[in-house]
């Protein structure tokens, strides 16, 4: 009886819908916090800014490394 309890893996925590809001908020643009961050900054590879803010972004707002190249990504 006791062993069956211990064998339950914590997989259900990953499937909890409560994780979704945290994920979506982490994908918000770090500069304006209003639009989704869909622009991939290189060389640090952070998804940190939206298409509007990317035009004026010279340093990555997440790690402050200089942005050498910006790639537009499509999530949906
Ligand atoms: Zn923005
Ligand atoms: Zn970065």
TrEMBL record:
Residues 29-64 form the RING-type domain. Gene3D superfamilies: Zinc/RING finger domain, C3HC4 (zinc finger). Keywords: Metal-binding, Zinc, Zinc-finger. It comes from the Eukaryota. GO terms for molecular function: zinc ion binding. InterPro entries: Znf_RING, Znf_RING/FYVE/PHD. This is RING-type domain-containing protein. It comes from Dreissena polymorpha (Zebra mussel).
């Amino acid at each position: 009886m006791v062993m069956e309890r211990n064998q339950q893996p914590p997989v259900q925590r990953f499937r909890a819908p409560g994780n979704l809001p945290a994920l979506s908020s982490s994908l918000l643009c770090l500069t304006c916090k209003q639009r989704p961050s869909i622009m991939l900054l290189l060389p640090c590879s952070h998804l940190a800014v939206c298409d509007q803010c990317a035009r004026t972004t010279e340093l990555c707002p997440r790690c402050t490394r200089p942005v050498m190249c910006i790639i537009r990504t499509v999530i949906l």
